[in-house]
User: Fold these one by one.
Assistant:
Number 1:
Amino acid sequence: MIAPKQLASGSAVILLLFGAACAGPEAAEAPLAVPTFQADANWPILPADFEWGQVIGIAADSRGHVWTSSRSVIAEWDPDGNMVQSWSARGPDENWSVVHGLFLDHNDFVWTNARESNLTLKFTREGEHVLTIGRFDETGGSNDTELMGRPAEIWVDPVDNEVFVADGYSNRRVIVFDGESGEYLRHWGAYGEMPDDEYRLDPASSEPSRQLRTPHGIAGSRDGHIYVADRANNRIQVFLQSGEFVMENVLRPMCPPRSEPPTPGCARAAAFSVGFSADEAQTYLYVADGGSHVIVVLRRSDLEKVDEFAGPGTGTGQLGRPHNLTVDPQGNIFVAEAAGPWIVDAAAGDSVQAGFRAQKFTLDDAGTGR
């Protein structure tokens, strides 16, 4: 669903209408308080023979089931955390590599990427492969309309079945396809401009990058906006579904070269994945900050930070490189943890690497916090 054309008549108008859409009709009387969460130590219930690798894809479906990708195996978990099924997404020849990102669409199809094989893939819920976008082990740059460049995450519009891909680790763009045929529709880069693979950011410049750098997370809101987690630029950029730029926010300042003294609070990668609060207006935007090992809460209307939670560690509610996140219909957040920081385990007196799991953060019963 491309947002109505009148939204594109100017930046001020876009922001004004965008803020009103996010606020909702009763927001002036009773603004939604910032949600708070409790980590659930009992989710998931791992089968005896199951072992996590890096978890680099997670998605909740309309039934409240959660899907994960680890070791190129897709697993489905019911709301209580029991495994329902699992199947390999490595392809008929078992050579599709690094199955990355997950999305369950409105028709119950499972979308993911074989990142290192440069493929975007569509499966049935039972694991039958039905569509491939791209060609195995081929890439053609950020303006090629047939080939992918190590794609990261996916979102599918339930209104017109358009597939939006953050393409991603090698390319510098969002690219859109028809969800039935896989036909190319359009693409764009930072600020809605065409991507330029020759561009290099001057490290001494204080200006923001004119190109996406590892566009990694992507999600679409109910009011027709696309949110991109521009990982290596530490920022969120927002677009209309047509690709027109709306606004951005940098989560943390960029760190200087490693040879220079660090800047307090800086990061080298801060925006990994995005999801929305479950209220009708989707008041808040959740961001997985894989560099600082926290979940950042932004007010969606202006992208201002209002909270963050978790922190680096191996305990329940701590995080090791939160890589992807999803929100179920009840508003609970699920986080996929890839390989994270080295943490001193006080009990063992040894260092362990955090990450390598999925966690559930349950929305407080009241649904709101402070």
Number 2:
Amino acid sequence: MRLRHVVLAVILALCLAGTVWAQSSIPQRIVSVTPSVTEALFALGVGDKVVGVTSWCTYPPEATERTIIGDAFNLNMEVLLSLQPDLVIGDSTLVAGHIEQLRALGIEVGTIDPTTLDEVIDSMITLGELVGDQKGGQALSENMRSRLSELTSHVPAGSSKRVFVEIWYEPLMTVGPGSFLDELINLAGGENIAADTGQPWPQFSEEQVLARDPEVIILTNYNKAEALQRPAWQNLAAYKTGDVYEVNPDLYVRSTPRLLDGLAELISFIHGVEL
């Protein structure tokens, strides 16, 4: 019996040691170097562990209370290191130039790089694994898929409207294949008039806009007052019906759960459905 007790004690000790190790390996001090990652971390419920963010990280409001470590292109390594992070997370494209430097300093770096809505949903699982909350990441991913299904169920079958998104006016820029906005337009039952450009952020001429006569216009640069005064645009279908909308661009370009808020808006704009 004594030997059995000893064996059980050893097994218990090993289990407890494993538990302590597993808990200590969960990041407690996280620095986010990408706005979309910051949003997602708060959505996962680990915002309290985020100690540093970039100057671009403006959502949720609590993120602005964290220490600023520069922006994705210009990290202040001195400030970042002073925060003693045990994990730095960012978009692999934006932080590519910093990854090796951070790792050389002994800092754990995690990256994501979703390019489609489906990949954004999957990236919530990846983030959950990185921060030690796999169940939370899985739950957030499942909630997003459920909401996506619910939203698209409101899109009338066989209906479509021509949509133009203005990213910038001089020069005139829009969205094309490879951008989240182009994908959201399609999911919302719209037809992107710049879908044939073959580029995610192409320049587009005013003549092309007038010739393709969009029925819905989305403005992402907070310039609706100016846009409504353009003489050449007054005969566009969207102008005649009043379907010109000014939106928060973050809902359409950041790879976060709020992309579904952008989709909900688009469905409302295109089909007049209140969601």
Number 3:
Amino acid sequence: MAQTEIDVPRSHGPHISTSTGFGRFGEKRELRTYQAHQLEDEVSQKWRAQFIISDEKFVRSLFNNNFQNSWQDAVPVWQQTIEAIQQRDIEKAEQLVRSMYAMFETEITRINMAAIHLEKHNPKSALNVLEYSGDMAKQNWEFYLNKALARMDLKDYQLALMELNNVASLQDSNVKVAFCFAKIYQYLGYYYKAGEYLKLTSKLAPSYSPGWYMLGMIQSKLGELQDAYTSFEQAQKISPNQYSLWYNKGNVLLRLTKYESAVACYKQSLRLNPGYAMAWNNMGIALNYVGRSFEALQSFRKALSFNPRLYEAHLNCGLIFETMGKRQKALEYYHRFLQIAPNNFQKQKEIVNSRIGALQRKNQ
């Protein structure tokens, strides 16, 4: 299944100064800061990569790079760039970021250029931009996160983990960072560690459906079936119309031997995606467990109508036909299974060959 990318940064609570030394001015200043954080959150939700849109960081970047005498030329382009990023207009954002990059090659424009490359699935280009960044860029957590994302795209998971460790020292409670840690640990096969970071993700962003969904997937892999069911339930409260959620919830119920409930989940998945062959196949398994073998056979054959190379469905059709006494039909499906099943199904192939031998002896 495709991995889901995170789009949610850490959430910022309002921090209004109550110190009598600041008075109303202090309150307004903090309120503006809070509103700016809200804008950063809103923008970050729309993109996989991490852009810098903070005016404060932008101005500091100009001054740090001795562009203070021409900052007025940059401000209108910067504002247009932020507007394009807010509207998730990638083509316009790319044009403006490139313009800013040509005018003012600062750590901010480099990080944003890398983000554009990542959004356009060019991780090598993103890394090339970031590799030439100076020390000032390394003070921004966005620099390391974008490098980590590029490493992940290139399947360099150990290097991605190293980049994220740099992020963690700058951002200790960031949802995007936590989710990236979880994905890397999942890819590396460290499922318990992935689960820990997904629990943190769900704690920091309880309304983020992909966090709960991925947590459910990890818990299911670890055999924590009841916890997985609860995580899928949480994800569905937020995003009830995702067919893969219903499918995986059905798989958990199937393993919990709650077959009728599993059938209901598979049916909902198929309402949302009628051509989902694996849902048809697994619904057939659940139907067969409750004695509805004819409906199960129909479900398996429906799966094959959408994916003729779904070897599990060929095996399941063979088993159903064998129990029905339809030996020739069973042999047809068994032989097809042997033709297309992958090498890691060697044990199942041996069992099927044994069944074929027994059926052929009965036909003699």
